[in-house]
Amino acid sequence: MAFELVPWRRRKAAAPSVWGREANPFVSLQREIDRLFDEFLEDFGLAFRWPAPRRRGRMAGGLLPSIDVSETDREIEVKADLPGLDEKDIELTLDENILTIRGEKKDEREEKKRDYYLMERSYGSFERSIPLPGNIDPEGVNARFKNGVLTVRIPKKGEEKSTGKRIPVKTE
Amino acid sequence: MMTEAVANKDVEVKRTEELPVCVPPADVYETPEKYVILMDLPGVSKSDLEVNVEEGVLTVSAVRSLDTGSAGRVLLEEWEPCRYERSFNLASDCDTEKIEATLRQGVLTVTIPKTEAARPKRIEVKAE
């Protein structure tokens, strides 16, 4: 998928005005509706293209970082895609079996005056909570951040067999 | 044992070939001196990333490493293993010899300076 490097600003300036050159106002209206529809579908990853491009890791407009959760007998592993963040921008809390990831992605683009061709990445703060099963050990939580992926490992508590107490049945 | 190892390797290779392509989200902007591409590539390490320029087309391709860590039972999976790929046609004023790429915390920054001739120049006005 190749992209022409033509800035939006210039493209808009070069486009004919809706009522000027377009003889039939209904044709232009139809085009505008088609364009809006395409944009809408694309936002939800449903654009009619093949192969359909998949976009991940978008965080704006209430969209949250992608998360994977897996478990083994010993621990639960949570992975979150947080590209472009620093470990100091991430706040991780575990409160009553709810793991909450908070963070703020700062705009690293230094220049103020620019011509944009594409703006697909997003900036701002987000928060996401993940409920965990009850048998976890909050003391042993281990978190590490590498290549824009946060990995949190929460060990499970040792098998507590004492919860099920065997009651002997007596005969009379 | 030997057979098993070879078989596993085959499965791995097959899986890599069949990975679906993801289009990573990107920002592209221009300043008077350069073009800058920022791309989100979470989970990609330097060794899994390739940036090529061929005949005026810049292509970024990367494979997200498939380390699932503990490799346990999946409870929630919001991303699937995929191959990131995206190409950009470069404008004629790009200096393809001086392109720089850096990868930091899952974000790739590609800086493409403009050719000397395309950059704005200040011309000294001399008083007589």
Summarize the structure.
The complex is a heterodimer of chains A (172) and B (128). By secondary structure, chain A is of the alpha+beta class.
Topology:
The complex is a heterodimer of chains A (172) and B (128).
Chain A: H1 8-14, H2 25-43, E1 67-71, E2 75-81, E3 90-95, E4 98-105, E5 115-119, E6 124-131, E7 142-146, E8 149-155
Antiparallel strand pairs in A: 1-2, 2-8, 3-4, 4-6, 7-8
Chain B: H1 2-17, E1 21-22, E2 26-30, E3 34-40, E4 49-54, E5 57-63, E6 73-77, E7 83-89, E8 100-104, E9 107-113
Parallel strand pairs in B: 1-7
Antiparallel strand pairs in B: 2-3, 3-9, 4-5, 5-7, 8-9
Separation of the first and last Cα atoms of chain B: 89 Å
What is the makeup of the main sheet of chain A?
4 strands, antiparallel
Into which percent range does the helicity of residues of chain B fall? 10-25%
The chain-level structural class of chain A is alpha+beta
Give the oligomeric state of the chains in this entry, treating copies of one chain as homo and distinct chains as hetero: heterodimer
Discrete helix count of chain A: 2
Write down the overall mean pLDDT of chain A: 71
Amino-to-carboxy terminus distance of chain A: 82 Å
CATH class of one domain in chain B: Mainly Beta
Poorly predicted ranges of chain B: 1-15
Taking all residues together, what is the mean pLDDT of chain B?
Answer: 80
- Strand content range of chain B: 35-45%
| CATH topology assignment of one domain in chain B | Immunoglobulin-like
